[in-house]
Amino acid sequence: MVKYKFLTPKAEIPKGLHWTLSILAFAVLIAVWSLLTYTEWISQLFLPTPDKTVRDGWLLFTNFGLLQDVWASVFRVTTGFLIAALVAVPLGILMGSLKICEAYAEPIMSFIRYMPASAFIPLFILWLGIGESEKIAVILFGTFFPLTLMIMDVTKNVAHDLIDTAYTLGVSRLGVFRRVILPASLPGIVDSLRIAFGWAWTYLVVAEIVAAGSGLGYMIMQSQRFLKTSHIIVGIIVIGVIGIIIDLVFKFWYARMFPWMGKRGGR
Asked: Which residues, 6+ apart, have CB-to-CB distance to 69 below 8 Å?
């Protein structure tokens, strides 16, 4: 049974093995990319070689101000996400704790959640113009509704035994909310925020398609117009690198705040 222990559901694996497998996945991806391009199975017009992509990426950073595009995108995504989180967290907690709030808000939010944020771009332009507000609004709209519903579910899943025990011990309704529901749901809320931040980045290109003059999404769309495939891949890789850094920060924060949950930062 020992040799099958790594196949046991939820069984822990050594940290070294975890990192080795994670790096191996990237190495396999680069190996497949190299195989397809250096052997010319795929034309460089559609998929450039890894070394050309690296060279073009360096040129974009040193000569074409890619760093400014990165900062513009980070600002838009972070602002949209923070505004969404500031409203979604308390609203989701209320919806998960109080049935009256759930009955009022959950149906309309579920209804809007299925509407694509890209379909609202013409309306956002009419309402907000073509400045930063419109781009932030797209990211905010795409993130807010699913995040609220995720936090509602996390709060609803707090064990009723804990709540009943608190009432039995004479804790008030406000005390149950403050001492039981909120601490018990906080790890799930942080996890939901981490996942939602990833969603915010997926809306970036959509937000920067229209009337943008900077940003990674704008750079990708401009590169597509001039068939600069390597620049498109550089933009996608930069978004992925930023995403994985944010993910690691959230996991580190999670591990420090909730060590009893058994998750470690960077894993």
From this structure: 214, 215, 216, 218, 219
- Please tell me the pTM assigned to this model: 0.86
- Phi, psi (5° rounding) for residue 45? -65, -35
Q: Which two tokens stand for residue 139?
A: 């990211």
What token pair was written down for 187?
């790890």
Q: pLDDT (tens digit, 9 = 90+) per residue, 61-112?
A: 999 889 999 999 999 999 999 999 999 999 999 999 999 999 999 999 989 9
* 21, amino acid identity: L
CB-count burial class (<10 Å; 0-12, 13-18, 19+) for 84: buried
Assess contact for 36 and 42: CB atoms under 8 A. Answer: yes
Using one digit for the tens of pLDDT, what is the confidence trace for 192-208?
999 999 889 888 888 88
Question: Are 68 and 126 in contact, with CB atoms under 8 Å apart?
Answer: no
